[in-house]
Amino acid sequence: MVPELGKVRIALPVSLSALTGYLASGIPWGMSTWYVLGGVFLLAMGASALNQAQEHHYDQKMERTRRRPIPSGRISPAGASLIAGVLILAGSLLLGMGCGRLSMLLGLMTIFWYNVLYTYLKRVTAFAVVPGSMVGALPPLIGWTASGSPVDDAALSLAAFFFIAQIPHFWLIVLSIGKQYEEAGYPSLSAILSPAQIGRLTLIWIAATASVGLFLPLTGALDSPWLSALLAAGAVWMCWGFLRMAGRSLDQVKPKEGFIRLNLFVLAVMLLIWIDAALT
Description:
By secondary structure, this protein is an all-alpha fold. The protein folds into 2 domains: about 1-150, Tetracycline Repressor, domain 2 (Orthogonal Bundle); about 150-280. Helices cover about 75% and strands about 0% of the residues. The chain has helices spanning about 1-5, 10-25, 30-55, 55-60, 75-100, 100-120, 130, 135-145, 155-185, 195-215, 215-220, 225-250, 255-280. The longest helix has about 30 residues, at about 155-185.
C-alpha cells in the first residue's frame, strides 16, 4: 500500500538526482549521503501520497490511475493524507538533522511547489509542466547544499539540466495518454495541438535537454575530459533517435521509445557524475 501511494519507482530516481547533486559538489561519500538519500526518498514518497489524496477524484476517471489505492477503495483520502504527513515529517527530520536547515527548507519548498503550485496549475493550464518542472531542479540542489558547498554555476547547471529534462518527459506522456487527461477534466495539450505538433514540441525540448547537458563540463559539474566526451556521445545518441522518429513522421513519434532514450540519457548523466566524483 505505502509503496503504491508513495510511487517508489518515481521516488527512487528523485533521490538519486539528489545524490548526484551531493557527489557533484566534490564531497566524498559519508554519513550525510545516507541522510540525503533517505530524506529525499521519504519526501518524494510523501509528496506522491499527498498528491493522490488531492486528486483521487481525477484518478477515478482515468484508466491509467483508477486502480490506485484511493480510487480502488483500498484506503481513504484521509488515510492517505495521514501516511503522506508521516512520510513528509520523517523526510524533513532526516534532512534537517543530517544535512542542515537549508537542505530541509529546499525539501519543504519542493513539497510546496509540487503539491500546491503545480497541482493547482495543471487544473487550469496545459502548460503547467513548465513551471512545475522546478520540482525536478530542487532535489539536486538539496544534495548539493547538504554537502555544505555554496551554490555555484556547477550546481545551477545541474539543476537546470534536471529542470529541462522534466518537460519532454511530460510531453511524451501527453502523446501517450493525452486523451485520458481530457476525459478526466484536465487541460491537455492534446486538445489544442495535433500529435505532430506535440512531437515537434517534444523534439525541441529534447534538443534543449541535450544542450544543457553539454554545459555540465563547462561549469565544472563534470571534470573528466573522457567522461565529458561520453556525455556528448550520449546527447548525440538521444537526439539522433528523436530525429530518426521525426524523419519518418512526427505523427509517429513513439512515446515508449522516447521515454527509453530520454531516461537512459538522464541516467547516463548521473552515472558519469558519480564516476567523476569517485575518480577525483
